[in-house]
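Hi there,

I know you've been waiting on this one. I reran it after we fixed the sequence typo, so this is the corrected version. Both the input and the resulting structure follow.
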Amino acid sequence: MKINDFEELVKQTIARGNLIKLLEGRGKWRIVVSDMFGDAPGIPQDWDSIFDKGIYPLYQKGYIEVKDEVERTLCQMCEKDKDDEIYLVILIWFYNLYKNKSSRVNKAPFKLNEQLLTTKVRETIIRRKESLIKCHKWSSSNENLYLKILQLGELFKKDYGIDFLLDNSKITRSDN
């Protein structure tokens, strides 16, 4: 897809109320990440292209509401009852934080609302802990999603100063 194709795709999905489907990347909404080695089936969705060629250019062209749409959609994803939704939300948020690093030449034009996402992510982890422990989707090893989320939480805290984990959340073998 070309850059303009992604911009149009994002505009159409928002207009039709389907941004959540695009960000989830399920079924016909899945955009498989490919590189010189072929497809990367372990990556849930091609958020690089969706954001870098769709969402961010639209924002830069004056469609600033797209930021609110993304934040609203991520909060909706936290409310869904699929086990991997919270993991997808955290990965999308991580991508936005990474694109906002001060050393990046190609910075994101906006930063997602840290306070809003910290609260929603924390609430969702508490509510879904047991099902996350049982879920092994998007894992090439025997790790469960709860453990992967704890690992991402440690990375968020170390690299970005964001703590969405509970004080008593520690990475332990019992979480496997």
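Quick highlight: The radius of gyration is 16 Å.

Best,
R. S.
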